[in-house]
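quick one before i forget lol
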Amino acid sequence: MSDVTVDLDDRHVATVEIHRPPANYFDAALIAALADAYEALDADPGCRAIVLCSEGRHFCAGANLGSPGSPADEPRSLYRQALRLFASATPVVAAVQGAAVGGGLGLALSADFRVASPGSRFSANFARLGFHHGFALTVTLPALTGNQTALDLLLTGRRVPGEEALTLGLCDRLAEDGEVRAGAMALAGELAGSAPLAVRSIRETLRAGLVERVEAALEREASEQDRLRASDDFREGVAASLERRTPRFQGT
């Protein structure tokens, strides 16, 4: 099975699914496959909305920082593909079961809407790894939560459960645990039931300038990730995460 599959139903809703369970870690190739799927569906008049979902326990835990050749080593190649997601013309609903962590949170926030459950959790855990955030969270997170809450989430790296995520604006609807995908399909069905030309036009108006802002943010994020990747704190943060212990940062 491919790491990304696409299924378009008779309600004009496409399911784009990631198949790297249980954590669904991404790399540039996977994000490129998602972008390819989005672009193909943009060109298909039979598609009016997309549900982005993942196989297994978690939506996405971002990059696997403990593996050799992690996307953290070359963020620009990953972010060139990520930018294509933001340039898509079709509205996207992310079904966030389990964890959306680090870059996985960035992927979830690249969608127009998110459906989660009380058991979902969201975390921008970069500072807990001694790292700078990425995947355009500079743009998307403050837009949803406000700047002060974004600062809280980015500097503390704390986990936000589904019910708080709804209050903060990280997700748009809550479904019962185990029913997140069904909830996302229901919302996508509502979008697909509206006039498709009007939906695309309204969405384009509200997202005016977004791709340009995201592109600038990704460049800044990649530069800071390059710089901090060489720090002792980053090495300590990754080691502590893998060893499931509290990191001992020295500011070097």
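fyi Residues 4-177 form a domain with the 2-enoyl-CoA Hydratase; Chain A, domain 1 fold (CATH 3.90.226.10).
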